[in-house]
Amino acid sequence: MGLSHKQVAKGRDVSNVEMVEQINNAIGAHGSWKLKLRVAMSSGSSEIDPDRACRDDKCPFGRWIHGDAIDPVTKQGKPYQVVRRLHAEFHQTAANVLRHAISARRTEAEQLFTGEFAERSEKLVRALAKWKGELL
To answer: Gene3D superfamilies given for it (predicted)?
Structure first.
């Protein structure tokens, strides 16, 4: 496992409990993207700007994973590195689905949604669950 029950990040204690809570929140929040993208595909519009959606550092989990709350040792670990990469890929693909959906390219949006987006979403959730399991 390699992680202690408390990790110190810039003078603050970040417990595994807090990390697990952030991971749980991320799993739920990223699950809601499916609904947002389905609505965008069916309506042809979205209140979410694809240029903002592609930014993996703007959602609450992204701000946390890119921020200073996680200690440098954890950031060097494989679980963190894998989740951070998959999270960025997730956002890029979600933004591409949105771009197609709001540009009257529903077929392309749906193909991307059921293919690449679904695969990246599943990989991200699996990686988050694995990281969570290592923290418990």
So the answer is: Aspartate receptor, ligand-binding domain
Strands (E), the chain: 6-9, 12-15
For 41-86, how does the pLDDT look when each residue is reduced to its tens digit (9 = 90+)?
999 999 999 999 999 999 999 999 999 989 899 999 999 999 999 9
Task: Give yes or no for a contact between 46 and 101, defined as CB atoms under 8 angstroms apart.
Answer: yes
Give the pLDDT confidence of 70-127 residue by residue, as tens digits. 989 999 999 999 999 999 999 999 999 999 999 999 999 999 999 999 999 999 999 9
Based on its alpha-carbon atoms, the radius of gyration of the chain, rounded to whole angstroms, reads 16
User: Has residue 85 been placed in a domain?
Assistant: yes
- Packing angle of the helix pair 118-135, 16-43 (nearest 10 deg): 170
Residue 57, domain CATH: 1.20.120.30
Q: Does 1 map to a domain?
A: no
95 neighbors 54 (Cβ within 8 angstroms): yes
Three-state secondary-structure class, residue 6: strand
Tell whether 47 is covered by a domain: yes
Exposed/middle/buried for residue 18 (C-beta within 10 Å: 0-12, 13-18, 19+): middle
Range(s) of the domain holding residue 130: 14-63+71-135
